[in-house]
Specification:
The structure is a single chain. The chain has 818 residues and is of the alpha+beta class. It contains twelve helices and 40 strands. The longest helix is centred in the N-terminal third of the chain and has 36 residues, at 2-37. It is globular, with a radius of gyration of 40 Å. The protein starts with a helix and ends with a strand.
Length: 818
Amino acid sequence: MRAGTNIMRAVSAVALSSTVLAAATLGAQLAAVTVAEAAVVNRIDVRGNSRVEADTVRGFMQISAGQNVTEADQDQAVRRLFSTGLFSDVRISQSGGTLIVQVDENQIVNQVLFQGNSKVKDEQLIAAVQTQPRAAYSSATTQADVEAIQAAYTSIGRSDAIVSVRTQEIGENRVNVIYDIQEGDRTKIESISFVGNNAFGDSRLKQVIALRESGILSFIQRNDIYDPERLRTDEETLRRFYYNRGYADFRIVSSVAELDESQNSYFITITVDEGERYSFGNVTIDSTVAGVDTESLYGEIETQTGEVYSAKDVEDTLVNLTNSLANAGFAFAQVTPRGDRDFASRTIAIDYVIDQGPRAYVERLEIRGNTKTRDYVIRREFDVSEGDAFNQVLVQRAKQRLEDLKYFDKVSVSTAPGAEPDRVIVIVDVVEKATGELSLGGGYTTGGESSGPVAEIGVTERNFLGRGQFIKVSAGFGADTRNYSLSFTEPYFLGRRLAAGFDVYRSESSSGDYDSERTGGDIRIAAPITEDLTAQIAYNIKQEKFGDDNGTTYNQFSNSQLVDGSGNVFESTCGNPDPNNNIVDPNGRPAVAPPYTDSPIINQAICESPYLTSSVSYALTYNTLDNTNDPRNGFFIQAGQEFAGVGGDANFVKTTGKASYFHLLNEEYDVIGSLNAGGGNVTSFGGDGLRVFDNFFKGQDIVRGFDYKGIGPRQNGVSIGGNNYANASAEATFPLPGISRDLGFRGAVFADAGSLWGSEYENDPGVIGVDASLRASAGVGLIWASPFGPLRVNYAHPLAKEDFDELQEFSFGFSSRF
């Protein structure tokens, strides 16, 4: 046993000695590896560089002599050098204490060239690509540029454009970068269809969205270009359309755009779930904030029990309540609408709950994405600024205002935490769009002083120099007319919501009974009283000349002088300057200038021109139209007065008013009804009486079927205008059956009634028609929302008229009814 034990001890000792020896050997090896991997670098040798200085390369590496450098350090240095974009290849190795850095420099871009492009200009493509002259060439960047160019073509409806890139060596390590483009055919939208819609047909919903099916006018309107972002925007537009018409449960199940490559056309299918239609149930206000008088807030509510549910009315009520609470000193009050659906009665009861919101302040407004529009143009649409109490409702209202400006394709507003827990950063991201327009128009007008073919050219900029200012320059030309105008508006005069501006114009006409020439302008300022009510005041001045040769001396005897009975030269004639016919020519014949018209009243007024009218005017406008250009619902009411006599030759008070009401009679067939009414009175003061040209001259503008100056007082068949007018009309417009609505054609049926009466010359010889006899007509019309502006053809048959009225049953011209 003892011998065995000794043997075991000896084996254990040998094993232990072997283990110690192995461990010592492994440690030495590990130490050697560590020393190799973290060797001290005494020198950094940069090779292969020609443009980039060696010290610059060393600086990018962030490795210096005397430093222990591991393989991980070398790998990191390689990544840093590649990230500069200066090198196409980088290799690092170590030889003893020397770190060898071998680089291949990127070539320098000499020129960026585009070949094969005609639909997108070079300037647009240069702005889209990242590769620029005198920069380092990068294949990764050029591939990204290829995608950017393809995106630019997709945005104009050419999604099958093919783009490739190549380089051209020109020596000295420089290259030209060339993008070869095959533009391909224009991609169209063949059809847009809806699935699941029962309340509204496809044709109505197509009018709601911005995307359009391709048609004969698509090359002008450019609204048949598929873009996923535009489709997303149309989805939101559809939601708002349904939400504002009672369908609170509406949702879009899917929207799919399929490209048929054989036809190079998209087929868009939008599947919807309309849900039930709701009305407003009980509407109440509750408050948990001490001191809030809820009873006084009910007047701010836009949601009325029994009316069709509308998300817009809820939003407007939130803004009204929030503003009222803020004005009452409750800056942090938070209004939340709580809806309670009753599925049996299909009503939604709304309870506006007022709670004390978190005490958060706006740290700053951060504007991003605006390259043209100035920051202050965006900031001024916010009712909150840095340091104010943060209110989500007012922020969302500002977003809506920015969208309404039509300066941006997209507006998004988000928030981020500020430097302190009670601070909020409001971030506004915008995508700008073109705001300038060149308009060309043409047509033919009938009746009045501007009868005949007309053409108009205009340049409009809604965001002039990025300052949010409006400017328009236009010129119109007709067979016998010339019109020129310039308008400018600053929507935030003196930093407030005051729209100030001016207009200047000149018009010339040689048609009708006599020539006319008007030159004038105005300075105006408008202030919003509420969201719907606006007040405007203006100073106006104009000079008017009437008659052949603008009312200059009229001598029927060519190359002769007019003399009186004593032989004195008489230098001015207009009509007969001497009722006794003592003004004769050298042969002794009476010299009487021929009359301009058959009306002595008009002739005398022509002889007394030119006139200068200096006046001050004001107007109140109430506008709740859902769309000013194409209204379907709402009111437009305007009333004002003009006081002439602030210098000049005229002394009168002119009062006018007009009102229009639009209502969508049938949602499915898009039938729109409208009622219009208007009236006016002009009265002289100062004892001189009215000039005849201060009267109202009316005709087809108030009762269609009559000439431009076809109704009212006349002398010897010539219109002398009236002191008063009144009119009313009813109209219904509708899409033409069997014709695509995308073409912009609508039919109309209408009935008009009105009268023009009263004259200070009613006792003069030959004056008739001074009484308020009624004129009426009924007719049909064809309206075309053309790319050149709204054009309209009317046929109106007079139902009530006077024998001396002048008729114009057929008329064709630009459409403007309110």
